[in-house]
Design goal:
The complex is a heterodimer of chains A (529) and B (255). With 529 residues, chain A is an alpha+beta fold. Chain A folds into three domains: 31-276 and 515-529, Uridine Diphospho-n-acetylenolpyruvylglucosamine Reductase, domain 3; 279-391, Alpha-Beta Plaits, CATH 3.30.70; 398-488, Alpha-Beta Plaits (2-Layer Sandwich). Helices cover 35% and strands 19% of the residues of chain A. In chain A, the strands form three sheets. Chain A has a seven-stranded antiparallel beta sheet, sandwiched between helices. A five-stranded antiparallel beta sheet of chain A has the order 6-7-10-8-9. In chain A, strands 2-3-5-4 form a four-stranded mixed beta sheet. In chain A, a hairpin with a 5-residue loop joins strand 6 (157-160) and strand 7. The longest helix of chain A has 17 residues, at 349-365. The radius of gyration of chain A is 24 Å and the shape is globular. Chain A starts with a strand and ends in a 12-residue tail after the last helix. With 255 residues, chain B is an alpha/beta fold. Chain B has a single domain, classed as 3-Layer(aba) Sandwich (Rossmann fold). Helices cover 26% and strands 30% of the residues of chain B. Chain B has six helices and twelve strands. In chain B, the strands form two sheets. Chain B has a nine-stranded mixed beta sheet, with helices on both faces. In chain B, strands 2-3 form a two-stranded antiparallel sheet. In chain B, helix 3 (101-114) packs across helix 4 (134-142). Chain B is globular, with a radius of gyration of 22 Å. Classes of the chains: A alpha+beta (529), B alpha/beta (255). Chain A binds chain B through residues 1-13, 15-16, 19, 22-23, 25-26, 278-279, 284-285, 328-329, 331-333, 349, 357, 360-361, 364, 369, 371-380, 382, and chain B through 14-21, 23, 34, 36, 38-39, 41, 80, 127-130, 185-186, 189, 191-196, 198-199, 221-230.
């Protein structure tokens, strides 16, 4: 008889990684959506692109004595002054904005953040809080010479209560790291984004990010239980130990969720995490019209109900861009005007799959959908998600992208893409050759939340394109009673357009709050409102 | 090629390769409850290759038959294979019993004879026990030629050319039928099973048999003594200078 000791080192674990390495096309499917720079050209300074925006002379300029002070409270390597190193903090992910900051500070503790802000406030030094720098509206990079306050070194997970699912962590923890920690304990972070490998959880709260699973778990306004915040004057205000139910006083944390670093700097957060579904299934469908997308959505809601965790739609044009970018085999054989990605998640995978299959078969027989596939394993599941998650990169890889993230009534959702494409074509800006700045206007988004991403992929940033799109897009959205920013926020790009969505009394109240908590306006200037 | 091809593709259901397997509490095997199972990636490649041969040589292929030995759930991987283009299938229900490579090969021999197969394409190994035995043993039992670790398969006239990746290059072997081919990763990239084909697959034949339908002695020849995690890697240390580094390496007799 042959006796054999089987060690796991020689078994499937190792093989799995071998497979991923051995097959380039599959390996390509796994690369995370971290920031990607095309190092071809330098980004124009924001100050040059927008000459109308002037540096506010209220702010002091950085002096050697300031540097000396920061050196006295922070370790040497927490100060970044080298021009090349600063580029990472000065430029945004889309390579559309570039600030001229001479200093980035990377504190490790809440006390250090407090000391920095107290000093900056007394000296009138403007400060830009920055997380993973994956924002899409130029909100996390300086416009002029503001000091960048990077939270990247505040990256400690503080605690997870495995009974209640309450998770506490520093704001600079990367979303994917937080989610992996939660996964090991059977929980899930109630938010998922394409940029999960780079973005910070604090940044997602500061910008009230929406993401792919809002349909299932709701917005951060519901799941964040408490925040630890440093105000502009250095005062630390913390509600991080709050429990799920607390009906005493104003709910102050809500002020900071989505405030984009204009009222205070979030240094820690407590968030209620739901149990992690044990099984995920993903289907990828082709349909013939936007009406069919809506029909499929209604049907999915009624037939998949409690297990439906994502319903994403994509138009043909954005998938064509993704095909050029990803270069792997496309899941569906024929082309369709619209594609849908459906994810279900639940506690019983077989039961879920049965439901999903029954739903798809009936949708197919009733000719609501034209074609579709279901992921047969985890590799295919990740592969299918990739066709949705890689769209942002695919749109910007050829030069740049104008991004509009709007919410609209479902019936009007796709109308905006048609309108934008028509306007750009008529203006002679959109075409197949290098002569035209615009490659295409494409649409995708979270149907479940009435959220459309209109992306205008360009070969180069040109004022004429921006003029054709703005305020046209905002006016169009406003006329349908939509929001000009569903989840990306206002930042620098949309500062002047808040009036299309918010009323004058609302804006006034916001300005009063800003005046009250940051009277010197040192936090994230030139942006938001 | 004058003879028509009757292709047989044996497939296995294993723990999904993207998941990290966990060792059971008793340390006797891998934890299987509540874990996602999928088709063995090498088997998926074998099915894909069979379908590609059929698509490229329509008149040449009589049929593609897939077979799986495993629990009832193994029918899922058969249905997926049918949806991708196989014509018929056999499920041999083994319940929870582990069937060793030699016995798998003996069963497959009988399946091949019954289906009058003359080309068998199978994964070079399954990722659960990494034996890499079945194809070779089956070739021995049938006394057929074998071309293992295929990275490319071409049919020219009445011969099959198989390219294999070997140290320092490629090796191409050729053979007449009958033939056994085991698949390597680079052979192809498996397709997705489309919804219409999934529905059609439900109408394709699925023969259901049991282990006792085969005249094979299933008693185990191998005994698993222990399954254990690889030892955790020890933390490294930081050295202050090159001299210190060299000294440390010398201490460890690394240089």
């Amino acid at each position: 008889m042959l006796r054999q000791i089987i060690k796991r080192g020689s078994s499937s674990v190792v093989l799995s990684s071998r497979i991923a390495r051995a097959v380039p096309s599959r390996a390509a499917l796994f690369h995370s959506s971290s920031t990607q720079y095309s190092a071809s050209k330098t980004v124009k300074l924001t100050a040059e692109s927008y000459p109308n925006v002037k540096r506010d002379e209220r702010y002091a300029t950085l002096e050697q004595s300031d540097i000396d002070y920061f050196k006295s409270i922070l370790p040497e390597n927490a100060l970044i002054q080298d021009q090349d190193d600063l580029l990472f903090y000065n430029e945004d992910w889309m390579r559309k904005y570039r600030g001229q900051s001479k200093l980035t500070l990377k504190p490790k503790t809440t006390e250090q953040v407090s000391q920095i802000l107290k000093y900056a406030n007394e000296r009138n030094l403007a400060v830009v809080p920055q997380g993973g720098n994956t924002g899409l509206v130029g909100g996390s990079v300086p416009v002029f010479d503001e000091i960048v306050l990077s939270l990247a070194n505040m990256n400690k997970i503080r605690s997870l209560d495995t009974t209640s699912g309450i998770f506490k962590a520093d704001s600079g923890v990367v979303l994917e790291v937080a989610d992996q920690h939660l996964a090991e304990n059977g929980y899930i972070f109630p938010l998922d984004l394409g940029a999960k490998g780079s973005c910070h959880i604090g940044g997602t709260v500061a910008t009230n990010a929406g993401g792919l699973r809002l349909l299932r778990y709701g917005s951060l306004h519901g799941s964040v239980l408490g925040l630890e915040v440093v105000l502009a004057n250095g005062k630390i205000v913390s509600s991080i130990d709050a429990l799920r139910k607390d009906n005493t006083g104003y709910d102050l944390k809500q002020l900071f969720i989505g405030s984009e670093g204009t009222l205070g700097v979030i240094t820690g957060l407590s968030i209620l995490c739901p149990p992690r579904p044990k099984n995920f299934n993903v289907a990828f469908l082709g349909v013939e019209s936007y009406e069919a997308v809506m029909k499929t959505f209604v049907k999915a809601k009624s037939e998949l109900g409690e297990i439906l965790s994502a319903f994403e739609f994509m138009d043909e044009s954005c998938q064509e861009l993704a095909k050029k970018h990803l270069k792997t085999a496309y899941p569906l054989e024929e082309q369709h005007p619209f594609y849908i990605l459906i994810e279900t998640s639940g506690s019983n995978g077989e039961h879920d799959l049965e439901k999903l299959e029954a739903f798809l078969e009936s949708a197919f027989e009733n000719e609501v959908i034209q074609d579709g596939v279901i992921a047969q394993d985890e590799t295919q599941l990740k592969g299918l998600w990739n066709w949705r998650e890689q769209i942002p990169e695919a749109c910007q890889i050829n030069g740049g992208v104008y991004k509009y993230d709007v919410s609209l009534p479902l019936s009007d959702l796709y109308g905006l893409v048609d309108a934008a494409r028509e306007r750009l074509t008529q203006a002679g800006l959109l075409g197949d050759t290098e002569d035209f700045p615009v490659i295409d206007a494409v649409g995708y988004g979270h149907v479940g939340d009435g959220n459309l991403h209109l992306n205008v992929a360009v070969r180069r940033y040109e004022k004429s394109v921006e003029k054709a799109l703005e305020p046209f897009v905002y006016e169009w959205v406003s006329s349908k009673k939509g929001s000009i920013s569903a989840e990306h926020g206002l930042g620098f790009q949309k500062k002047n357009y808040i009036g299309y969505t918010k009323s004058q009394p609302e804006i006034e109240m916001m300005k009063q709050l800003k005046q009250l908590y940051d009277p010197n306006a040192i936090l994230n200037p030139y942006k938001y409102i | 090629m004058s003879t028509k091809l009757n292709i047989l593709v044996p497939v296995k259901r294993v723990i999904d390769f993207a998941l990290k397997p966990r060792i059971n509490k008793a340390g006797t095997g891998i934890e299987k409850t509540g874990v996602k199972f999928s088709i063995n990636p090498f088997c998926d490649i074998a099915v894909e290759e069979a379908v590609r041969i059929k698509e490229a040589h329509k008149s040449l292929v009589n049929k593609i038959h897939v077979v799986s030995i495993g629990p009832t759930k193994a029918q899922d991987v058969l249905r997926q294979s049918l949806a991708k283009g196989a014509d018929s299938s056999t499920h041999i229900d083994s319940g929870e019993q582990e069937v060793e490579p030699l016995n798998v090969a003996k069963i497959l021999k009988q399946v091949a004879e019954k289906n009058e197969s003359n080309l068998i394409i199978l994964g070079k190994q399954s990722i659960d026990d990494d034996s890499n035995n079945t194809g070779q043993m089956l070739a021995g039992l049938l006394n057929w030629p074998q071309a293992t670790n295929a990275a490319k398969v071409e049919i020219k006239d009445d011969e099959v050319y198989v390219t294999r990746e070997i140290d320092g290059g490629e090796e191409t072997v050729k053979s007449k039928l009958p033939l056994i081919i085991t698949t390597d990763l680079r052979l192809n990239e498996p397709r997705f099973a489309s919804l219409p084909n999934m529905m059609k697959a439900k109408k394709k034949p699925l023969e259901k048999l049991k282990l006792k339908d085969f005249d094979v002695d299933l008693s185990a020849r191998l005994e698993v003594l222990k399954v254990e995690e690889p030892a955790a890697r020890e933390a490294g240390i930081k050295v202050g200078s090159v001299d210190e580094l060299v000294a440390k390496l010398k201490d460890l007799k690394a240089i």
